[in-house]
Amino acid sequence: MHLLITGATGFVGKALISALATNPQYVLRACVRRDNIIFPDNVDLIKVPDLAAETDWHAALEGIDTIVHAAARVHVMDDKSADPLAEFRRVNVDGTLNLARQAADAGVRRFVFISSIKVNGEETLPGRPYTADDVPRPRDPYGISKHEAEQGLLALAKETSMEVVVIRPVLVYGPGVKANFQSMMRWLDKGVPLPLGAITTNRRSMVALDNLVDLIVTCLRHPAARNQVFLVSDGEDLSTATLLRRAAKALQKPARLVPVPPLLLNSIAKLLGKTSVAQRLCGSLQVDIVKTSSLLGWHPPVDIDTTLEKTATQLRQQQK
Fold this sequence. Notes:
Elements: E1 2-6, H1 11-20, E2 27-32, E3 43-47, H2 58-61, E4 66-69, H3 84-105, E5 110-114, H4 141-159, E6 163-169, E7 171-173, H5 179-190, E8 206-208, H6 209-221, E9 228-232, H7 240-251, H8 262-271, H9 275-282, H10 290-296, H11 304-319
Helix pairs in contact: 1-6, 3-4, 5-7, 7-11, 8-9
């Protein structure tokens, strides 16, 4: 398989290349924005400066039969753009569909699109997890742009011979994770008291990086993945308090959790203009991966505690 990976320097792209680089079944080409990136010697690097409607992909697509498209304008907290939706559409919709059309014209067999659970929405009711076949209800510009890209790709699949596979991950974590998850691990490692001990009834789905990569690899070849949408998680949903305690255990530190009532936390967050942060901490977001398991015969190969331990080890190594 001659595989093109966009977003090759990102969290998911780097892990996918690492997983496949030693497998002789794959000839890898990585799209990068800078040409000073170091990858294994057998990975062909090609510089593509931008993901936009006018980008020329002909050189990158030469000889390619499969694409994993992980490049995107990612979700931005406190986005300062004058028109955030327009910026997300420029990259995530126009840029993606431009690549996909050129790929179809070049004879690419399958296009695997890394989307987002934000296409489904922002939160779930107790006992009502999202499924891959729910009516999408994206709320923010990022989720809207990912949904529009999905629609365009699936329409293109009907018009051409190129197959499309859409994967909507939940929160991805593992060694090398950044942003809020990394901050959480650092706070726990330092013994910072966190006012989240009473958040015990919500449930959040997450997906270990190794599990997401394993599903992507499955979707490269599996015939039943053709023109389908899949949700992915670790198959175990945790409350915020439980996640913090298990992360602290992985760090071999006590979890210093203060039991502040969620109603009070939400009220304080509203006063501070941080309602969305409180929603992610106190609310639920669960996904049902029955379709993924039944159609593909796929099950998460790695459990949460193993991944938290690997993440903790990597964090400690960083701090040395």
